[in-house]
């Protein structure tokens, strides 16, 4: 990656708006979850946006996180023995995490871009992805989630209904209240005022 100088003008305004979306309280909750999910071996970051970014930057913590949500023997991300030091290897590790998160069920619109984390361009997007992953893990309730289930919201699940033929026919006879009522509908007694006077 090329070194970037400071941003000016509109670029600086846009970047500062993006940085304001970062939630420090959410960071604490995410760190607690990652440590509970992966174990104390992953360590803890320094507090703040940049500390969180440095902790996740090489992709190893994220890879351990997503692997911990799968049963033994079907881990989606290969984790190297030593953390990668080369930039492209670190970015590749992050990309593997993103692919595994999508395969797990995280919606594509909730997934951050690799540069959002690697260059700390949008750490709020990284938080959104981790929250979406946590919510899915709580919703699946397959025994692989560790931590407080109240840390994340459960996603709504499909509640399919089956109707019999007679129930479907009965529903066609009912006029919904949104359509109004056809009882007593008549134009009798309506007047539109005096007729127009035409004088020649």
Can you describe what's shown?
The protein is mainly alpha-helical and 200 residues long. It is built from 8 helices and no strands. The chain has helices spanning 9-20, 24-38, 49-56, 60-68, 87-104, 114-118, 123-140, 165-172. Helix 2 (24-38) crosses helix 7 (123-140) and helix 4 runs parallel beside helix 5. 23% of the residues are buried. The mean pLDDT is 81.
Please supply descriptive tags for the structure shown above.
200 residues, mainly alpha, 8 helices
Detail the topology: elements first, then pairings:
Elements: H1 9-20, H2 24-38, H3 49-56, H4 60-68, H5 87-104, H6 114-118, H7 123-140, H8 165-172
**Overall shape:** elongated
Structural class: mainly alpha
Spatial gap, N to C terminus: 88 Å
Which H/E pattern describes the elements? HHHHHHHH
The helicity comes to 40-55%
Given the structure, what is the number of helices? 8
Integer-rounded radius of gyration: 28 Å
Count of DSSP strands: 0
Main beta-sheet annotation: none
Taking pLDDT < 50 over at least 5 consecutive residues as the criterion, the unreliable ranges are: none
Proportion of residues in extended strands: under 5%
Residue-averaged pLDDT: 81
């Amino acid at each position: 990656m090329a070194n970037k100088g400071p941003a000016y003008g509109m670029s600086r305004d846009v970047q500062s708006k993006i940085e304001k979306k970062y939630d420090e309280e959410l960071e604490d909750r995410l760190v607690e979850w990652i440590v509970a999910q992966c174990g104390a071996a992953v360590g803890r970051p320094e507090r703040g946006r940049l500390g969180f970014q440095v902790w996740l930057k090489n992709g190893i913590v994220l890879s351990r996180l997503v692997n911990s949500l799968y049963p033994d023997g079907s881990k989606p991300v290969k984790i190297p023995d030593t953390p990668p030091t080369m930039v492209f290897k670190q970015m590749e590790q992050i990309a593997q995490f993103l692919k595994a998160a999508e395969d797990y069920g995280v919606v594509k619109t909730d997934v951050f871009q690799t540069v959002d984390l690697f260059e700390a361009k949008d750490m709020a997007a990284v938080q959104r992805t981790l929250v979406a992953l946590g919510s899915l893990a709580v919703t699946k309730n397959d025994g692989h989630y560790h931590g407080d289930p109240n840390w994340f919201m459960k996603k709504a699940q499909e509640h399919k209904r089956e109707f019999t033929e007679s129930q479907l026919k009965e529903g066609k006879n009912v006029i919904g209240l949104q359509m109004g009522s056809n009882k007593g509908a008549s134009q009798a007694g309506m007047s539109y005022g005096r007729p127009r006077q035409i004088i020649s």
